[in-house]
Amino acid sequence: MDVDAFIEAQDLSKVYTFGTVEVAALRGVSLSVARGRLVGVTGASGSGKSTLVNLLGGLDRPSSGSIRVEGRVVSELNKRELALYRRHTVGMIFQSFNLVNAYTALDNVAFPLLFAGVARKDRLHRAEELLHAVGLETRRDHRPTELSGGEQQRVAIARALVNRPLILLADEPTGNLDSKTARQIVEILAQLNRSQGLTIVMISHEQDLLREYAHEVIRLHDGMVLAREATGSVR
What we know:
Elements: E1 7-18, E2 21-33, E3 38-42, H1 49-56, E4 64-69, E5 72-73, H2 79-88, E6 90-94, H3 105-115, H4 120-133, H5 149-161, E7 167-171, H6 179-196, E8 199-203, H7 207-213, E9 216-221, E10 224-230
Helix pairs in contact: 3-4, 3-5, 4-5, 5-6
């Protein structure tokens, strides 16, 4: 065990069963992430990247191995404990923005706080602060269909941060964006890492962007860690 690790996965495996067929998405993956680091994970389609994020986020359980966050074994939490973990410890953003089309940007960001029992006035105030942080304060009353792809992803980032998580997990957050907008989104994440000390694990095919902004890049292949690269990034 790495005593300095904030996030630690040990011998992590995940096998999916489809009828009589078993598919190994992860095969003995071990990795550690120090607090306040921005770590990139890359690899070809089917390499296990999204499976890894889902396991770190408590959306799925490993077939074997363990996940620890601050020394707590996340992979052994019960359903209630996992729900609290997802609510308070991790925020997640995805390639598809998953916004509610009937809600304004402000209400989309504030929505998770409803389940945390936060009063409406406080929900909206915190949502306004986060929209300002991602540069969308003037778009607060616009619905997703009135926003560009980059703006929708910024709303999704603000929503992921509204519960003040310790960890942000980003699964292909630039996958649906053009190269200029993709860079803007990664710059926002890097700024959050620098200014707030937010620990970020970001999945991306954009290896050049990861090398430019992440402290470390982990490359997966066929469900295994193929390589780890310290980038020396100071962005």
